């Protein structure tokens, strides 16, 4: 005669929450929202950063207050958001319903972001979650441009669903900031190279983000060191910042370690240009030699984003170059006009 099952101390979980998305797409392509690629929302310090931070660029204003105990969220904490956004974007592309609440496997996250899976790595992950939740950002940024002043967080709730006997995290449930989920819904994201997670230095990661955001697939992007330092959020002296950028450029020249782009320092100007492998990876369309020779200014890309909000400007650039028959006399104006008409015909990005 079979023994009756021993009754557990707790009632079984009879209902699961429908809006919970479980992250399990292991090969999801890394994605990042464009707002935090454009503006320095994360600290470049690898030490605990307890200093308040303020930033202004044009109409955009940002004030950041660090978490009381762990300090300000840093560039490496950002890996968690990239992992989750990548998962949500992949799920959306496959037709799945997504929402703000997600469950992640700590082990999968650490593997996907090129981290150790030791006990120390799980402790570091716990502290990163605290910084992401309690770093407070007051800003007028929203995913469609500049809007009302409001207070936001990277994640609004985090809880450990499972832990083993050593205290190591096994499963974590997060509630993402609504502005990050809206970036996914509006496809206001850009693809990152997987080698992003191999970059050792916080400034290397920040330079890559800015290059991906501003250079894209255009032939070249230049920016003065003063403006670059402002956009990176670096608190170093001007002399030290130049030394750090020069060191990264020298290493890239020797080892080509920076993904997608080449970085060169010309006196007080950083010059960024895409590698051939980047163009091959991000598009398989054929562009005429005449169109390849047409260059656009950084200002043209900014104006194009205003003309066609929610669209990936570099995708539209490729469409424009495919459509082009002869090089235009005024490339910037022609490209912005193309984006404006595209948006008038097609509306927001699907």
Structure characteristics:
alpha+beta, 4-stranded antiparallel β-sheet, 4-stranded mixed β-sheet, single chain, Arc Repressor Mutant, subunit A, 350 residues, 13 strands
Protein architecture, described:
It is a single chain. The protein folds into three domains: 21-192, no CATH class; 197-279, Arc Repressor Mutant, subunit A, CATH 1.10.10; 285-346, no CATH class. The chain contains 13 helices and 13 strands. The protein has helices at residues 34-38, 78-93, 106-112, 119-134, 178-185, 202-214, 225-232, 238-255, 276-282, 289-292, 298-307, 313-323, 331-346, and strands spanning 21-22, 31-33, 53-57, 60-65, 101-105, 136-142, 145-152, 155-163, 169-176, 189-191, 221-224, 261-266, 269-274. The strands form four sheets. It has a four-stranded mixed sheet with strand order 1-5-9-8. The protein has a four-stranded antiparallel sheet with strand order 3-4-6-7, with no helix packed on it. Strands 11-13-12 form a three-stranded antiparallel sheet. Helix 2 packs parallel to helix 5 and helix 12 (313-323) crosses helix 13. The protein has 350 residues and is an alpha+beta fold.
